[in-house]
Q: What sequence folds into this?
């Protein structure tokens, strides 16, 4: 009987822990890194316009703007100016610049003199609601394609913000969007540099 | 006889010394007069350009500027003559001046400098708000920007005890703004350097990249082209350019090209930068302007607010491309709100986007000038294959 009680207590505690953890907002990360790729050989990178799946029409441009400057600020990689990338996209005749095919990557790279092409998707950007709680959330996925073969050599995802336990209990609206964007981009760049 | 010769020679010597003294005195007076003349150029005051997106009493503002400048002893071209000149040469754009117009002004009206003014904000609702950017451009060959200043005021900037410092009359605020600009101009023309207050660290760029060796000891000639405006505010791209010019000109380490000249070149070359500056654009612009460096960027948010509650917001990024290397030597991302770092009783709050932009850009230009200073960043890119994960 005593063992059953202990077992029941453990199950209840575990269930409580799992439910609390699921309530908590914050980040999740997934990544892929090609073990055969020498990332040190990448000097120049072109960042394509990000696909925007959020409700904010400018989310793709906003996140790309932060990412490009943050990547340059690392000092390890030179990022081709976005205007030059747009010119390259036009010259390469890319119909969907957010999701380039292997052939398009191979065509674009020499036009902009890039060693790698980064494309991305903004999946969430803005407010998220759950009951009376509101908070900002951002979710971004990036992938880097090597230009010789056009294959993806690195891919990562970062999600920041969301409704946490504190927001549920105390309210407050969560972190500002700029701050969580900064966190997500920093997280993605850390994953690239790991 | 000997005595009379001695006395004559003494008199002659005295007259000679006196003459020499008077001559040197008069030449000094003449030199001082020339210097004064040079420091007080003959000025034409263009009608202000309205980028506020609202009706602005432009004639009153021009009149106030002209009167204040003239009262401080600087000769100003009268309005009728200026209007005749502008009609004769079909000049409609008052936000800048191109080389041709400057040359006409110099030769036909004997004008040494043009005062160009832009109104970026004008709101008569309580508390009134005003934002003015003004610059003095030489009509000489180089068309140097001699002085540039911005002022952005709100009626509730300094409420003081029991609200005694509140300004509710838009005309009073206008007068205060104009006086502030004219005082700064007078100070500059007198040869004194205005004291620039250091900017709080909270206005520093969030991300900042500067190429190795930039800017070094070299004095760059800089052109700034209009930023892409992705914000809801009309003319935000042009306004932020003027703030950049103000801070670059104030810094003194850059020779800034008059934006009217840059505008004319962009029109002549039919350059439209719909999605940012390409390297080809940068090449054309720098070569035609004779610039070493061209700044461009993107304004995502530029928001003012009306009424007493709220805070301005600005979000912009900037890149600079160098002519020689054809590479980005500077990239920066900044965003701030007027109430950043404000916790108690709105102390330290910035009430106008113009003032906020001025702080943010000054901080950015300060970062550019601090050569050799390393910012906290990320580790180096791995130079060996990483493990599969």
A:
């Amino acid at each position: 009987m005593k063992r059953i009680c202990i077992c029941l207590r453990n199950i209840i505690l575990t269930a409580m822990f799992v439910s609390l953890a699921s309530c908590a907002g914050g980040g999740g990360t997934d990544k892929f890194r090609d073990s055969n790729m020498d990332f040190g050989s990448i000097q120049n990178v072109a960042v394509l316009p990000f696909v925007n799946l959020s409700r904010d029409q400018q989310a793709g441009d906003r996140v790309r703007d932060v990412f490009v400057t943050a990547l340059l600020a690392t000092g390890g990689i030179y990022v081709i100016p976005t205007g030059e990338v747009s010119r390259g996209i036009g010259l390469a005749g890319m119909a969907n610049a957010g999701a380039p095919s292997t052939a398009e990557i191979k065509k674009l790279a020499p036009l902009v003199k890039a060693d790698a092409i980064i494309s991305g998707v903004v999946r969430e950007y803005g407010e998220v609601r759950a009951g009376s709680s509101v908070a900002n959330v951002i979710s971004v996925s990036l992938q880097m394609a090597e230009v010789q073969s056009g294959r993806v050599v690195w891919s990562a995802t970062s999600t920041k913000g969301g409704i946490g336990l504190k927001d549920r209990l105390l309210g407050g609206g969560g972190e500002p969007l700029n701050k969580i964007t900064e966190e997500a981009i920093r997280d993605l760049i850390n994953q690239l540099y790991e | 006889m000997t005595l009379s010769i001695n006395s004559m020679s003494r008199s002659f010597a005295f007259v000679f010394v006196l003459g020499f003294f008077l001559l040197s005195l008069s030449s000094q007076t003449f030199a001082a007069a020339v210097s004064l003349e040079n420091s007080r150029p003959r000025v034409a005051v263009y009608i202000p350009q309205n980028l506020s997106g609202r009706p602005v009493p432009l004639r009153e503002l021009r009149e106030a500027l002209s009167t204040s400048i003239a009262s401080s002893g600087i000769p100003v071209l009268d309005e009728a003559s200026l209007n005749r000149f502008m009609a004769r040469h079909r000049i409609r754009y008052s936000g800048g001046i191109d080389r041709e117009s400057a040359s006409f002004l110099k030769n036909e009206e004997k004008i040494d400098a043009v005062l160009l003014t832009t109104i970026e904000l004008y709101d008569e609702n309580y508390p009134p708000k005003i934002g003015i950017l003004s610059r003095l451009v030489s009509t000489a060959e180089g068309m140097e920007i001699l002085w540039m200043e911005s002022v952005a005021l709100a009626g509730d900037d300094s409420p003081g005890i029991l609200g005694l410092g509140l300004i509710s009359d838009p005309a009073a605020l206008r007068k205060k703004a104009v006086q502030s600009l004219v005082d700064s101009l007078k100070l500059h023309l007198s040869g004194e350097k205005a004291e620039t207050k250091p900017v709080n660290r909270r206005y520093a760029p969030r991300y900042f990249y500067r190429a190795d060796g930039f800017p070094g000891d070299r004095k760059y000639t800089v052109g700034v082209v209009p930023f892409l405006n992705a914000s809801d505010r009309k003319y935000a791209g042009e306004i932020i350019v003027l703030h950049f010019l103000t801070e670059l000109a104030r810094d003194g380490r850059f020779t800034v090209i008059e934006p009217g000249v840059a505008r004319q070149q962009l029109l002549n070359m039919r350059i439209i930068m719909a999605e940012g500056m390409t390297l080809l654009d940068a090449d054309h612009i720098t070569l035609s302007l004779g610039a070493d460096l061209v700044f461009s960027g993107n304004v995502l948010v530029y928001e003012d607010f009306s009424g007493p509650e709220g805070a301005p917001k600005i979000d912009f990024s900037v890149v600079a491309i160098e002519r020689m290397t054809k590479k980005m030597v500077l990239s920066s991302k900044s965003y701030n709100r007027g109430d950043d770092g404000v916790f108690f009783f709105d102390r330290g709050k910035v009430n106008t986007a113009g003032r906020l932009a001025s702080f943010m850009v000054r901080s950015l230009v300060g970062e550019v000038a601090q050569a050799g200073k390393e910012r906290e960043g990320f580790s180096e890119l791995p130079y060996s294959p990483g493990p599969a994960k």
In short: The first helix of chain A runs from residue 2 to 23.
